[in-house]
Design brief:
Elements: H1 3-35, H2 37-54, H3 56-59, H4 91-126, H5 128-142, H6 146-157, H7 161-188, H8 191-198, H9 203-211, H10 216-239, H11 251-258, H12 267-294, H13 296-301
Helix pairs in contact: 2-4, 2-12, 4-5, 4-7, 4-10, 4-12, 5-7, 6-7, 7-10, 8-9, 10-11, 10-12, 11-12
Length: 302
């Protein structure tokens, strides 16, 4: 057998071993997720809430925006499980549709902060002369309390779902960028990255194949927490009137409607608040489970 044919066979064998190793790591990771109680509970809660939100048009018992002045401020009953508000609207239906809005906003904010945070964090750590400029700019944004900055931005842009998404993305991208930057700095010092540079691999190949592929774990965990915080922040912004405008239901503006009747009609504010708490709990449990499995330091403490 010629030396060239031998090299080809060895290359194929090496690629096969690498593929098999990746498959084993993936299966191990899936088994660890399935065995982790925190992740399982959180994922189950999130899956149930997501299913409710997706099926909102079919499972909501009433039109969430339909006024019915004959049933104003009715307490929880067999007809209205969560009661009605000051316009006679069914709270259960409004909570289901409000959950849909909150999950959509939280998911989009998590995705967008993940994308922009990855771009900025990678650029800051890989292009050294950009590090100081980008990090000082992001530090300046992080100096403002997160929710206050989001409220100021949404107030300037006007109340709508899109402005909430933009405001929260601007607010939480700096935190995500710092997480990515720290992870990329660690990966950049690994021997396989130095070896890729030594053999003349291009910057794009090094970043996407060798660096980002091994630095995404902290980003995934961070995105679950951004998802949870965004749900809370959206509720706060809607409560203050800078979120999705009424009569479109969101969990925050449902609670805002209920503050007027909190003593005689507690159910208007309490039930959407419980849904927010359950959604955030599920996401935090998922994030904790992912962190325990992904981070070796937490894994060793289990």
């Amino acid at each position: 057998m010629s030396a060239e044919a031998l090299d080809i066979d060895q290359g194929k064998s090496l690629r096969g071993e690498m593929t098999s190793a990746r498959r084993r790591r993936t299966l191990k990771f899936v088994r660890e997720l399935a065995d982790h109680p925190s992740f399982l509970i959180g994922a189950t809660i999130l899956a149930i809430l997501t299913l409710i939100a997706v099926l909102a048009p079919w499972i909501a018992p009433y039109d969430p925006n339909k006024n019915n002045y004959r049933d104003v401020l009715m307490g929880p009953s067999s007809q209205f499980w969560f009661g009605t508000d000051g316009y006679g609207r069914d709270i259960l239906s409004r909570v289901i549709y409000g959950l849909r809005v909150s999950l959509m906003i939280g998911l989009l904010v998590a995705i967008l902060t993940g994308i922009f945070g990855t771009i900025l964090g990678t650029a800051a750590s890989y292009v050294r002369w950009l590090d100081g400029l980008l990090m000082r700019t992001l530090d300046g944004l992080m100096a403002f309390p997160g929710v206050l900055l989001a409220i100021a931005l949404a107030s300037a842009l006007g109340p709508s779902e899109m402005t909430v998404i933009i405001a929260l993305t601007v607010t939480y991208t700096p935190r995500t960028a710092r997480v990515v930057r720290a992870a990329v700095l660690v990966v950049q010092g690994m021997q396989y990255v130095e070896a890729a540079k030594a053999v003349g691999a291009g910057h794009g190949r090094i970043i996407f194949r060798y660096i980002l592929g091994n630095a995404l774990s902290p980003l995934i965990v961070q995105m679950t927490f951004v998802f949870a915080v965004s749900i809370i922040a959206e509720a706060i912004m809607s409560f203050l009137g800078v979120g999705p405008p009424p009569p479109a239901p969101s969990l925050g503006n449902i609670i805002a409607d209920g503050r007027t009747y909190i003593q005689e009609a507690w159910w208007v504010a309490v039930f959407p608040g419980i849904v927010i708490a359950v959604a955030v709990l599920g996401l935090n449990l998922m994030g904790d489970g992912l962190r325990d499995i992904i981070d070796p330091r937490h894994r060793s403490e289990r």
